[in-house]
Amino acid sequence: MERQAGRESGEHPATLWAVLDEAVLHRVIGSPAVMRQQCAHLVQAGEQPNVTVQFLPFSLGAHPGLYGPFVILTFPRPTAPLVWLENPNQLRVPGVRE
User: Fold this and answer.
1) What is the pLDDT of residues 72-97, one digit of tens each?
2) Nearest C-alpha neighbor of 67 from the set 43, 94, 29
3) What is the distance between the alpha carbons of residues 49 and 89, in angstroms, rounded to a whole number?
4) Are 69 and 80 spatial neighbours (Cβ–Cβ below 8 Å)?
5) CA-based, 20 to 30 A from 1: which of 30, 92, 95, 96?
6) Are strands 16-21 and 51-56 parallel, antiparallel or unpaired?
7) Residues with Cβ < 8 Å from 65, sequence gap 6 or more?
8) Taking Cα atoms as reference points, which of 45, 53, 54, 55 lies closest to residue 13?
9) How, if at all, do strands 16-21 and 82-85 pair?
10) Within the chain, where are the H helices?
C-alpha cells in the first residue's frame, strides 16, 4: 500500500490509464456492499489528475482486449512506446479490429 501511495502522488506521480470491460460492473464479487466500495474506489481514483478510468461498453463487440491484458509503456524520446502482452497469442486474432 505504501508503494502504491508513493506512485500515485508525490512530485512525479505515475500516469495510469485503465480501460475496463463493462462486465466488471455486472459481475458481483463478494457482496453488493463490496461492489459499492469497489465502484467508489474507481470513482475516487479517476478524480486524480494522473488517473483515467474508462469502460468499454458491451455494444463495442469484439476488441483485442478480450484476449488478455496488455500494457502500453511510454518512455522519454527517442524511445518508442512498448506494448507488453500477457498472452503472446493475442498478437493476431482473426476477426478482431486492430
Assistant:
1) 888 899 999 888 877 766 555 555 55
2) 94
3) 34
4) no
5) 30
6) parallel
7) 19, 21, 56
8) 45
9) unpaired
10) 2-8, 23-26, 32-46
**Radius of gyration of the chain measured on its C-alpha atoms:** 16
Q: What is the pLDDT of residues 27-56, one digit of tens each?
A: 998 999 999 999 999 999 999 999 999 999
User: What one-character-per-residue DSSP string does 51-65 give?
Assistant: EEEEEE-GGG---GG
Find all residues with CB under 8 Å of 54, minimum gap 6, and list them: 17, 18, 19, 20
Q: What b/e string do you get for 40-68 counting C-beta neighbours within 10 Å, with b at 16 or more?
A: eebeeeeeeeebebeebeeeeeeeeeebe
Output the nine-digit C-alpha cell for 37: 466500495
Cell for 6? Answer: 508513493
49, 16 in Cβ contact below 8 A?
Answer: no
- In the DSSP assignment, the letter for residue 30 is S
